[in-house]
């Protein structure tokens, strides 16, 4: 083991917004049949492989998601956020992501641009590093890998 240059642990906040607690049974034609528990287990497995530590929260309440972003300041190196329907409405989450300032990746299971027009606008995209949309549960994994690649490139 190289003790001179140990690999840095990346602290990553994972936020799941409203209705995502129903994953697995909710509109499987859009969101697939994978439960939130399985998504989180998949993320934990990947995190263990990549030397990352996760803090995971699902909430149906906008303020709780804002609070989680505030509480992660000083701890998180980055975040994944599937803000669910708040993606399309929440200036509060836009402001909180901007204030938190760590890189965040916007995640969607479905391709929001192939759905109703009201889903085509994201309030949080301008304050996110990137967006992954449309790969089902794999969107989270791709987003985590992308975020870690980005963090590893930082000095
Ligand atoms: C979603 C897409 C949103 O438009 C929707 O409100 C969700 C889930 C997705 O993961 O595809 O709740 O964020």
Can you put this structure into words, describing what you see?
With 155 residues, the chain is of the alpha/beta class. It contains 5 helices and 5 strands; from the N terminus they run βααβαβαββα. The chain has a 5-stranded parallel beta sheet with strand order 2-1-3-4-5, sandwiched between helices. Strand 3, helix 4 and strand 4 form a beta-alpha-beta unit. Helix 2 runs parallel beside helix 5 and helix 3 packs parallel to helix 4. It binds 1,3,4-trihydroxy-5-OXO-cyclohexanecarboxylic acid (DQA).
Task: Report the bound ligands by name, code or SMILES.
Answer: 1,3,4-trihydroxy-5-OXO-cyclohexanecarboxylic acid
Strand content: 15-25%
Let me know the largest β-sheet: 5 strands, parallel
Distance between the termini: 22 Å
The rounded Rg comes to 15 Å
Low-pLDDT segments, ≥5 res: none
Walk me through the topology.
Blueprint: E1 10-16, H1 28-31, H2 36-50, E2 52-58, H3 62-72, E3 78-82, H4 91-100, E4 104-108, E5 130-133, H5 138-153
Parallel strand pairs: 1-2, 1-3, 3-4, 4-5
């Amino acid at each position: 083991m190289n003790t001179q240059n140990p690999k840095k642990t990346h602290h990553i906040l994972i936020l799941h917004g409203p209705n995502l607690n129903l994953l697995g049974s909710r509109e499987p034609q859009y969101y697939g049949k994978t439960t939130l528990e399985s998504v989180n287990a998949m993320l934990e497995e990947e995190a263990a492989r990549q030397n990352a530590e996760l803090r995971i929260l699902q909430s149906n309440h906008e303020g709780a998601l804002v609070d989680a972003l505030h509480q992660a300041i000083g701890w998180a190196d980055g975040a994944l956020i599937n803000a669910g329907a708040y993606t399309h409405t929440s200036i509060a989450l836009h402001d909180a992501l901007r204030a938190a300032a760590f890189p965040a990746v916007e995640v969607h299971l479905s391709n929001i641009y192939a759905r109703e027009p009201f889903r085509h606008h994201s309030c949080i995209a301008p304050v996110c590093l990137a967006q992954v949309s449309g790969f089902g549960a794999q969107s989270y994994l791709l987003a985590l890998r992308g975020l870690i690649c980005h963090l590893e490139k930082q000095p």
